[in-house]
Every structure is written in structure tokens, then in C-alpha cells.
């Protein structure tokens, strides 16, 4: 198939913000971005050198000195204008996300919608950076807390949500008065540069200081520069648990702050009292959406033994309807995985499932031939498995669903929690006691727990993130904004005496 984009003759240069001042990197190295949809080379992007990186950080620091002085509602107004730009370019950016990353066009558009939604959310938040006030134990004293801008923040994002996850961080960070340096995944650099271009007009029109929005490109090195750099107050990293542990250690080593969104191993419990007409489509979308490459992807279903055979046969039937093909063609449900390395991981997992004694209910396989020239298309599959198998305990970023059986709800919750990760979870039941138990303190141990909806597709209004090896960070809605600010407690004495707290007397 012909590429939908003309390949620029010169490598594209990342850098700082307004789109007019991309750094002239002297890098000999470039990142080649291939579309997993059709295997075409769609862009060649310069890799930032350490010298580029240092210039970016210095520019960001200078920008922070000014940006923090801009009133928060005014910063919100600038984010509002960015939201307008993303509305204007939704189709173009959504198409590029679909083409560069491989998710279906609907999901690409949905991802841009998440950017628009977080912009709206952040605008409101810009007028609600509330601190508490406290009653002092001393007479004529007042106590309160204020939230101040934090500084330069680094955003390390993953290929699977190449633009939305950046926006959850950046839009909130900007209304909070921070400046952002974004290191996008080396698998999806073009969508990042597109976002920078889309907002550059707003930054220019509002005379926002150069450096409020920066991009550095590269692989592990660039991530490490951010993690080790004491000039970077907060590092928000999305990706594998392995990457997250490395970032967390490096940031903790300098007592910096990190916000981690790492792997998930998300399960849906299907009770005997579930409405299967709701459960089946939720499971299928959760398992095969984004070709199984969401951190919220449904990887395990834990089914009550009395309805196990029925669920199995309904899933088999549903999987037989799945149409796999070019993500830009809206008649297909499932696109490719990101690259051939991901295909390799899928194959390794399939082998391990077989070696562990797993039985495939829906067979795995690679797809080749006309329309599949990128060699990145795999068949979504379902295997009967056991929760304790090492392969089931790991997150394989592919459309592989494990079918597990339970007897009692305690047993189901135990299996659901008994993995190293703790991102998303769900139960399908019409029984109120089961639902409430699942949501209680002795129920799901995940950051997200749902009733009668699947594990993926969280709305931006809630705090997004998970426990255990998922990293503990919370992004997006609720009070996640607090991670992007520093809290200051203030005590003010408006009286004529100097009483000490805790009743201490100190007389001179
Ligand atoms: C991710 O996969 O990193 O809840 C984020 C969801 C999306 C975000 C997923 N809103 O599936």
C-alpha cells in the first residue's frame, strides 16, 4: 500500500516550543518511524544529543521563571486555546496516531478526544488550585496551605498512547505553572512533534516564553538524562515496570519526585449473576482493543465455574467475528501490534503458554499476505490457563486473553489480586453484595475497580493509575493536579504576643 504521508526530505528536528525555534541538532543519529499498518517509513526524526538536551533544560528553566508568574486562570485560558486547536485538528492527528501507532482510527480519534477532555478539565482546574485553611492552636494566629508551581517536569511517554498520556500530564502541569520536557517513545516520535506543532500557534499568539513546552527525542539515554537531572523536579513516566523501576531508582537517588504509570495485568471477574450481554462485548473490547497494548487491557477473565462453558463458547463466537486489518480502514476491529519485536514477544508468550499446559480456545497465529506486508498483524487469542503460571503473572503487551475459573467470590478476588501489578479490574454481577464486596477494602487491590464495565477506557475525570508494580502514580482527574505542585504550609501571627506551639514557654 502507498504511504499516506509524503516523507520529508530532511530529518525533523525536535526542540523547544513555539515551532519556530527547533534546535538544529548536530546529531548524526535519527529515529526512523515506520507505520506498523503498512510497513512504510513515514518520518525520520533527529535524536537529541546531550548538548541539545542541556540547551532544552536551560531554556525550560528560564521559561519557568516567567511562566510561574502568569496567573493560573490565565494559564488555563492558554490551555483552553490549545483544546480548541486539538478540536480543529482532531481528524488529522487521530489519523496520524492510527497510522504511526497502529491503533484503529476510532481509537486514534478517541485518543485525541482524551486530549480535548483533559484541556477542558485543566481549564476548570486552573481556577481551583485550592489549599485548606486550618484553625491554629495559638491565639491570633492563622494557618493555611498554598500550592505553588513546582518547576521543570519531564514526561516520558509510551508508544501505546503516544499523545493522550502526554496531555494528561502537560495540561495539568501547565495550569499548575510548571514547564514540560516531553520525551516521547522512540516508536512514535512523529505524533509528538505533531502535537508540538498544533499548540505552537497558541504559544506564539499568547507570547508564552520559549521553553514552556519542549521535546527531546531518543531512547533510553534521553530518559536517563531526565531521571538523573536535579534540574527536573518531577519525572512522570509511563511504560514497562522494568523501565519504571530504573526511572524510580534514578529519581529517588537524587530525592526527586516521580509519578509512575507502569504495567497492568487486569482481570474481569464474571459472576454467575452477570449480565453476559454486557460482559461479553466489554471483555472482547478490553482484550483486543489497541491490539492488546493498553496498560488497561483485559488480560485475564476469572469466570464462575457454573457459567464457564457458556462464557467460553460465547467468547469463541465473538472472536470469530473479529476483523483484523489496516487500522485506517474503519471496517476492521483490530490493527497491528507496534513492531516486529512485539510480534516476537507474542510468539514467545504463545510458546510459553503451550509449555505451561495452556489450551487455546481461540488459536493464536501471525497473519501475512496482501494488506499485511508490515508483518505486524497477530491473531487475538484466548487460552485456558492457571493464575499462578509465570506467563499469566507477566504482562505481555499483545492480544492474549487468559481464561481462569473460580468457585467462590473470595477465590475470585484472591486470583484477581494475586499478580504483581495493580492497575485496573472489574466485576460483572447484578448482585449488590458481590459488587460492594469487590469495591471494598478487602476487594480489588487495584487503582481502578469497575462494576459492569470493562477494565480499559477510563474517563479523564477520575484519577488514573495503579498500585504495586503499576507504580502508585495518579494522573488526569480528581486531585491528581497536586502531584504537579509543591505544598507550602503557612502560619501567620497577627497578634501582639509570641506564643509557642505545644505550650512551650521560653522566656528571656
Ligand atoms: C495506557 O494504556 O497507558 O483507560 C492508558 C484507558 C485509556 C488510557 C490507557 N483511557 O484505557
Automatic annotation (TrEMBL):
<dbReference type="Pfam" id="PF00171">
    <property type="entry name" value="Aldedh"/>
</dbReference>
<protein>
    <recommendedName>
        <fullName>aldehyde dehydrogenase (NAD(+))</fullName>
        <ecNumber>1.2.1.3</ecNumber>
    </recommendedName>
</protein>
<feature type="active site">
    <location>
        <position position="261"/>
    </location>
</feature>
<dbReference type="InterPro" id="IPR016163">
    <property type="entry name" value="Ald_DH_C"/>
</dbReference>
<dbReference type="InterPro" id="IPR029510">
    <property type="entry name" value="Ald_DH_CS_GLU"/>
</dbReference>
<comment type="similarity">
    <text>Belongs to the aldehyde dehydrogenase family.</text>
</comment>
<dbReference type="InterPro" id="IPR044638">
    <property type="entry name" value="ALDH7A1-like"/>
</dbReference>
<feature type="domain" description="Aldehyde dehydrogenase">
    <location>
        <begin position="23"/>
        <end position="489"/>
    </location>
</feature>
<keyword id="KW-0520">NAD</keyword>
<keyword id="KW-0560">Oxidoreductase</keyword>
<comment type="subunit">
    <text>Homotetramer.</text>
</comment>
<feature type="region of interest" description="Disordered">
    <location>
        <begin position="1"/>
        <end position="20"/>
    </location>
</feature>
<dbReference type="InterPro" id="IPR015590">
    <property type="entry name" value="Aldehyde_DH_dom"/>
</dbReference>
<dbReference type="InterPro" id="IPR016162">
    <property type="entry name" value="Ald_DH_N"/>
</dbReference>
<dbReference type="InterPro" id="IPR016161">
    <property type="entry name" value="Ald_DH/histidinol_DH"/>
</dbReference>
Amino acid at each position: 500500500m502507498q504511504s499516506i504521508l509524503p516523507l520529508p526530505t530532511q530529518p525533523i528536528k525536535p526542540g523547544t516550543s513555539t515551532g519556530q525555534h527547533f534546535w538544529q541538532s548536530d546529531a548524526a543519529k535519527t529515529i526512523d518511524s515506520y507505520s506498523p499498518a503498512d510497513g512504510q517509513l513515514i518520518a525520520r526524526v533527529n535524536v537529541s544529543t546531550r548538548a541539545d538536551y542541556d540547551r532544552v533544560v536551560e531554556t525550560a528553566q528560564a521559561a519557568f521563571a516567567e511562566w510561574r508568574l502568569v496567573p493560573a486562570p490565565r494559564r488555563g485560558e492558554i490551555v483552553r486555546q490549545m483544546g480548541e486547536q486539538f478540536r480543529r485538528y482532531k481528524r488529522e492527528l487521530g489519523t496520524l496516531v492510527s497510522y504511526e501507532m497502529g491503533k484503529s482510527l476510532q481509537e486514534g480519534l478517541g485518543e485525541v478526544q482524551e486530549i480535548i477532555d483533559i484541556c477542558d478539565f485543566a481549564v476548570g482546574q486552573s481556577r481551583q488550585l485550592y489549599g485548606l485553611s486550618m484553625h491554629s492552636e495559638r491565639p491570633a494566629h492563622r494557618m493555611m496551605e498554598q500550592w505553588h508551581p513546582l518547576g521543570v517536569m519531564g514526561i516520558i511517554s509510551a508508544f501505546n498512547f503516544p499523545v493522550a498520556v502526554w496531555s494528561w500530564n502537560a495540561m495539568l502541569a501547565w495550569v499548575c505553572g510548571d514547564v514540560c520536557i516531553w520525551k516521547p517513545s522512540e516508536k512514535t516520535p512523529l505524533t509528538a512533534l505533531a502535537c508540538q506543532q498544533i499548540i505552537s500557534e497558541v504559544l506564539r499568539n499568547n507570547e508564552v516564553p520559549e521553553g514552556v513546552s519542549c521535546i527531546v527525542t531518543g531512547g533510553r539515554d534521553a530518559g536517563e538524562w531526565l531521571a538523573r537531572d536535579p534540574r527536573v523536579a518531577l519525572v512522570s513516566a509511563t511504560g514497562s515496570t522494568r523501565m519504571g523501576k530504573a526511572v524510580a531508582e534514578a529519581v529517588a537517588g537524587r530525592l526527586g519526585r516521580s509519578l509512575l504509570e507502569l504495567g497492568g495485568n487486569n482481570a474481569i471477574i464474571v459472576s454467575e449473576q452477570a449480565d453476559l450481554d454486557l460482559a461479553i462485548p466489554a471483555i472482547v473490547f478490553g482484550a483486543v482493543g489497541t491490539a492488546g497494548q493498553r496498560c488497561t487491557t483485559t488480560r485475564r477473565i476469572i469466570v464462575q465455574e457454573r457459567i464457564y462453558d457458556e462464557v467460553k463458547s460465547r467468547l469463541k463466537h465473538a472472536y470469530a467475528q473479529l476483523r483484523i486489518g489496516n487500522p485506517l480502514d474503519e471496517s476492521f476491529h483490530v490493527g497491528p501490534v507496534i513492531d516486529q519485536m512485539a510480534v516476537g514477544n507474542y510468539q514467545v508468550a504463545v510458546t510459553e503458554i503451550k509449555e505451561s499446559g495452556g489450551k487455546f480456545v481461540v488459536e493464536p497465529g501471525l497473519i501475512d499476505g496482501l494488506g499485511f506486508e508490515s508483518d505486524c498483524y497477530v491473531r487475538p487469542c484466548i487460552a485456558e490457563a492457571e493464575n499462578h503460571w509465570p506467563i499469566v503473572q507477566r504482562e505481555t503487551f499483545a492480544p492474549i486473553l487468559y481464561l481462569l475459573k473460580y468457585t467462590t467470590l473470595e477465590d475470585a478476588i484472591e486470583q484477581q489480586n494475586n499478580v504483581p501489578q495493580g492497575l485496573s479490574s472489574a466485576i460483572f454481577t447484578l448482585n449488590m453484595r458481590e459488587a460492594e464486596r469487590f469495591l471494598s477494602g478487602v476487594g480489588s487491590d487495584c487503582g481502578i475497580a469497575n462494576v459492569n464495565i470493562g477494565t480499559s477506557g477510563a474517563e479523564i475525570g477520575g484519577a488514573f493509575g495503579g498500585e504495586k508494580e503499576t507504580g502508585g502514580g495518579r494522573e488526569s482527574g480528581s486531585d491528581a493536579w497536586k502531584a504537579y505542585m509543591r505544598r507550602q504550609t503557612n502560619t501567620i501571627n497577627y497578634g501582639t504576643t509570641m506564643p509557642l506551639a505545644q505550650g512551650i514557654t521560653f522566656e528571656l
